[in-house]
Amino acid sequence: MDKGKGVLVRRWAIDFTDNSTTTSSRDIPDPLGFSRASQDQDDSSVSKQKKDAEANWKAQKAWEVAQAPFKNLLMMGFMMWMAGNTVHLFSIGITFSALWQPINALQGVGKVFEPYKDSKVDTLTPKLLFIALNLVSLALGVWKLNTLGLLPTHASDWVSSLPPAQEVEYSGGGLPLR
Asked: Can you tell me the distance from the alpha carbon of 48 to that of 130, in angstroms, rounded to the nearest whole number?
């Protein structure tokens, strides 16, 4: 590098600025049959096609997310069947998991479908399917609670909360001792 009067000049630097007087590519006329306006229209149609493809992809993914609880429903049903109808730690754990998962999923419906919101994508019907399948899963968990006998559905389940019966009459028997 050469130092001269406070300015650093690189020895092997190349200047890419065009100082020539020759015609540039902007000055050359377009060939016959070519217009720059049609190219701009093609770009807009390509961007519209990309937006449509993205909207279709979002709609497809929203439906996949909506149908996901069905797979969970089948798995949970099989696990409940394998747990049996006796009350033990495994069957209670499976049953409460079957109740907890749909409740959490129903609380987060908005967050689940937020990435798929678009002006061109209808997320109402996938949301309704998602909610319906989770309600079916919740009903399956409640049914399992009932088959385990953990739901108070019989009158005998409420006996402890009833007041004791009052004695209406008193009878005594035997001969009096004198």
From this structure: 30
Cα separation values, 5 from 2, 8, 10, 12, 14, Å: 10, 8, 14, 19, 21
- Residue type (1 letter), 70: F
Residue 21 main-chain phi, psi, to 5 deg: -100, 5
Instruction: Give the Cα separation of 103 and 113 in Å (integer).
Output: 16
Residues of the chain with pLDDT under 50: none
Per-residue pLDDT tens digits for 99-120: 999 999 999 999 999 998 888 8
Which pLDDT belongs to residue 39? Answer: 56
pTM, two decimals, is: 0.64
Beta-strand ranges (E) seen in the chain are: 2-4, 7-9
